[in-house]
Amino acid sequence: MNIQERKVNNIILLTLSGRIDAFTAEKLDEELNSIINTGNLHFVVNLTEVSYISSAGLRVFLGAYKKLLKNQGKIYFTNMPEPILKIFSLAGFDKIFEIFTSEREALKQFGAKIEHVKAY
Amino acid sequence: MKPKVYELRSKFELGSLPKIADFIEKNITRLGCKDRQVIHDVLLAVDEASSNLIKHSKAKLKKDYFVIQLHCPTPTCIQTKIIDFTEPFSFEAHPILTPSLSVEEQLKHGWGIGLLKTITENATYCTFKTKNILTFFKYFNPQGDPHEHSRTKSK
To answer: Which CA distances in Å does B104 have to A77, A91, A99?
Structure first.
């Protein structure tokens, strides 16, 4: 799994690629927590290049969601491949997370100025 | 002719998960499956079963590896077997996931094995004197990826 990080205004855009399994979920957990601990509370996570997310990965996102909720933060997901969308839905994640078709849509929801953001 | 069985012996290490996923991806296509949803579901189910074994069986190992077998009993079906030589676990205690339940309610039983049961067909877990065998099936269209077809058509 690879994690690419960008920042638009005060929003962190993470583009994940590869497999999120119990092994790589630890790296994702560390990365997310380290960003949250530096005071960043708004996230857009692009999953377009992710081949699968195991339950360990779902737990990482749930942990981040709870931590952000406590601190008035938010995490949005974008560009979700159909098989992953199905897993989110089975786990009930579609009820707690907002899922957008593009980064642009998610950034709009945050009220970001997005003129200079490439469409993904 | 006997159907070809692809087999991998894996160590009880989370670091082995990428090797397991590579094994599934490579051999599931050799068996004729190109359906992206089916490949995804087999990858995820094997990942969940393997992670469960690696995380929870380490102290009770009778052999220091477990076995993953992949084969097609019919041209439209992938059968996956995961054979381990550890103490059995309670397969029945993990219900299939119910989307109408909240995330917290789903989590009471853990997600991994419930997810495996939900995305595969006829998942069973048999315990023997010296080993346990987890078996599940996925059915596919040997003509190709139906999702790919619909993407092409919609262009």
So the answer is: 20, 10, 20
Q: Which of B17, B36, B103 sits opposite A91 (nearest CB)?
A: B103
Q: How far is B129 from chain A (nearest CA, A)?
A: 29
pLDDT for A116: 52
B115 touches chain A (CB under 8 A): yes
Tokens read off for B135: 């078996």
Residue type, B66: F
Chain A interface includes B40 (CB < 8 A): yes
Here the CATH number for the domain that contains residue B74 is 3.30.565.10
Interface ipTM: 0.88
Report how far residue B96's alpha carbon sits from residue B116's, in angstroms, rounded to the nearest whole number.
8
DSSP state, residue A119? P
Nearest chain A residue to B14 by CA: give it.
Answer: A23
Cβ neighbours of A19 in B, within 8 Å: 17-18, 21, 43, 47
Domain count, chain B: 1
d(C-alpha B87, C-alpha B139), whole Å: 30
Confidence at residue A111, expressed as pLDDT on a 0 to 100 scale = 84
Say yes or no for a CB contact (<8 Å) between B106 and A21: no
Pair B12, B54: CB distance under 8 Å: yes
- CATH for A2-109, among 3.30.750.24, 2.30.30.100, 1.10.357.10, 3.40.50.300? 3.30.750.24
Are A95 and B103 in contact by the 8 Å Cβ rule? The answer is yes
Domain extents in chain A: 2-109
Residue pLDDT, tens place only, B99-134? 777 888 777 777 899 999 999 999 999 999 999 999
Asked if residues A53 and B40 have their Cβ atoms less than 8 Å apart, the reply is no
Structural domain boundaries, residue B48: 5-154
